[in-house]
Amino acid sequence: MLLIARSKRTLALILAANLVVMSFEGCGAQPEEKRYPIQAEVVAVDLPRKLLIVKHGEIPGFMPAMTMSYVIAVPKEAASLAPGDKITADLVVSASKGRLEKIVLLEKAKPNPVPSADGRLLMSCVPV
């Protein structure tokens, strides 16, 4: 009788230990992240909300070319950007959420010439 009680207690302890281990298995797991290099043109910068709206080309295996807003992982990387600037960045996607990392300015937007009333071209500057 003592041997059966001891076996049941050992079995109960093993089952309890397995349950504890199984419950902690998923705690530290991070969702899988996929990285896609993109080239894009800045449409708008919203630093207070940490968003960058860009027009990017096709991302093979992920999405067609489109204009979208993305969270900026490091806002200071976008502090000097303005509409029309050309950039590269890493689009990091996890759990259907995307963010831009490693934002690099390739080319500043060129000022747009604006015709004056007398037909001469004036230069307009894009606000920074």
Your description of this structure?
The chain is α+β, with helices and mostly antiparallel strands and 128 residues long. It has a domain at 34-112: Copper binding periplasmic protein CusF (OB fold (Dihydrolipoamide Acetyltransferase, E2P)). Helix content is 19%, strand content 42%. A hairpin with a 4-residue loop joins strand 1 (34-46) and strand 2 (51-56).
Q: What is this entry, summarized?
A:
With about 130 residues, the protein is an alpha+beta fold. The protein has a domain at about 35-110: OB fold (Dihydrolipoamide Acetyltransferase, E2P), CATH 2.40.50.320.
List the helices and strands and how they pair.
Elements: H1 2-25, E1 34-46, E2 51-56, E3 66-72, E4 86-94, E5 97-107, E6 112-115, E7 121-124
Parallel strand pairs: 3-5
Antiparallel strand pairs: 1-2, 1-4, 2-3, 4-5, 6-7
CATH topology of the domain at 34-112: OB fold (Dihydrolipoamide Acetyltransferase, E2P)
Global morphology: elongated
Beta-strand content bin: 35-45%
The major pleated sheet works out as:
5 strands, mixed, barrel
